[in-house]
Amino acid sequence: VQLVESGGGSVQAGGSLRLSCAVSGYIYSNYYMGWFRQAPGKEREGVAAIDVRFGSTTHADSVKGRLTISKDNTNNALYLQMSSLKPEDTAMYYCAAGNIGLGLDPAYFGYWGQGTQVTVS
After folding, report:
1. Cα–Cα distance between 50 and 120 in angstroms, integer?
2. Cβ contact 14:85 at 8 Å
3. Is the terminal CB of the chain with fewer CB neighbours within 10 Å at N or C?
């Protein structure tokens, strides 16, 4: 499984970004995909996750109503729509795939992309 993120950048507070994750390779049984972020000096935290079979989602309380995960199974893509961005959203954002369950624990996910930087000022 290969995961490649794109769409990061610099934006002012209150602005929007849309992150994309292109998925390639054989993802048999990796039914769960998620977005995670890691700011300098902090642990990696789960932002949102989705069951790609049924579309069920979960979002961290800190991002509910502002960041939304979605999928496009036809194009093998995962998205994170980000709006009303805050400086505390500044981090490297990672796409991940796994087969344990729908959750926000990084330990649930075995495949990771290289990340895309989001900076909110």
Report:
1. 25
2. yes
3. C
Place of tokens 């998205």: 79
User: Quick one: DSSP state of residue 7?
Assistant: -
Which residue from 90, 100, 103 is spatially nearest to 37, judged by alpha carbons? 90
> What totals of helices (H) and strands (E) does the chain contain, helices first?
0, 11
Sign for the CA dihedral angle at 7, 103, 90, 84 comes to positive
CA torsion through residues 7, 8, 12, 18, sign: positive
Q: Give the per-residue pLDDT at 28.
A: 61
Q: Which residues of the chain have pLDDT under 50?
A: none
Rounded-to-integer distance, Cα 63 and Cα 31, Å: 23
